[in-house]
Amino acid sequence: MDIQAFKMDGLGNDFVIIDQRNQNLNLSKDQIIKICDRKFVGCDQLIFIKKSEKKDAEVEFYNSDGSISGACGNGTRCVADLLSKENGNKEIILWTSSGPLKSKIFDGNLVETEIGIPKTNWREIPLSKDLNTKNLGLQIVSKNNIEHIGGTSINVGNPHVIFFVNDIDDYDLIKVGPEIEKHKYFPEKCNVTLAKVINKNLIKVRVLERGAGITKACGTAACATAIAGNINKLTDKKTDIEFSLGKLSILIDENNSVHMRGPVSDIKNIEIKI
User: Fold this and answer.
1) Is position 28 within any domain?
2) Are 252 and 268 in a shared domain?
3) Would residue 31 count as lying in a domain?
4) 218 has catalytic annotation
5) Residues 189 and 183: beta-carbon distance below 8 Å
6) CA dihedral 142, 145, 148, 153 (to 10 degrees)
7) How many domains does the chain have?
8) Annotated catalytic residue: which of 43, 78, 190, 218?
9) Residue 199 CB partners (closer than 8 Å, separation 6+)
10) Are 247 and 12 in contact (CB under 8 A)?
11) pTM reported for the whole predicted model
12) Beta bridge partners of 215
């Protein structure tokens, strides 16, 4: 099977995008995993674009382990840019399993997506029981065996937990991340972020995404971290979230809706033989 596809990324968070509007494909979970495998094509998530009667398009996100992802901020921004270059519109609305997401396209490959109002109720995240979502009381241990207790949990289309620590490099995210991702508190698993507040308008982070592992960037994690910082009175409503390859700018507006702005890569056409 020959598949025409695109490769894009947002700050190194990379995607294979398959446009199903004009090609009828039904890929198995094993085929999705193979495409995401970096020994084959390689990406953090696989995205399908589908026809939509109400919006510009419908999108489905799949993690590299073949599981479905409810939302993908950077992936949404990449698809919005792709469709904008196709139809010339500077506003793109995509339908996701979490609802419609509106994006604005700016010069210089900048795209802003409104993620919406975050969910902080334990049932909406969801958690396995009624807990204080501002501080779950979860323990992570540093490389030097220093214990840290915390964890703020938020859902921005998928569940996240954020730990505000003194140094994000003090922790082995490869070890700590999966322990929290699969913790009994999270029946649907969760994304895990280590965050260091630099000032009221800047947070440095490292992220492990559920079903994808450690990624260079994560749009919804950036949004969740900015919200968690504001909830804990650590940051203002406008905050930059810094990843290893750059920053995403997050704004919490007067309606408590979250906007994410940042760069996307150029579009690369690829052919997949599978």
Assistant:
1) yes
2) no
3) yes
4) yes
5) no
6) 50
7) 2
8) 218
9) none
10) no
11) 0.95
12) 207
Residues β-bridged to residue 150: 138
Q: How far from 247 is each of 10, 109, 234, 264, CA to CA, in Å?
A: 10, 14, 18, 11
- The residue annotated as part of the active site, out of 36, 43, 72, 223, is 72
Same-domain status, 268 and 221 = no
CA distance 71 to 136: 23
Q: 26: number of CA atoms within 13 Å, CB side?
A: 0
Closest residue by Cα to residue 211 from 48, 7, 44, 73: 44
- The encoded tokens of residue 57 equal 């398009």
- The reply to whether 146 and 59 lie within a common domain is no
Per-residue pLDDT tens, the chain, 274 aa: give them: 899 999 999 999 999 999 999 888 889 999 999 999 999 999 999 999 999 987 899 999 999 999 999 889 999 999 999 999 999 999 999 999 888 999 999 999 999 999 999 999 999 999 999 999 999 999 999 999 999 999 999 999 999 999 999 999 999 999 999 999 999 999 999 999 999 999 999 999 999 999 999 999 999 999 999 999 999 999 999 999 999 999 999 999 999 999 999 999 999 999 999 8
Q: Is 72 a catalytic residue?
A: yes
Determine which helix (DSSP H) or strand (DSSP E) holds 78, and give its type and residue range: helix 73-87
Instruction: Say which CATH number the domain at 252 has.
Output: 3.10.310.10
Tell me which residue range forms the domain holding 85: 2-113+262-273
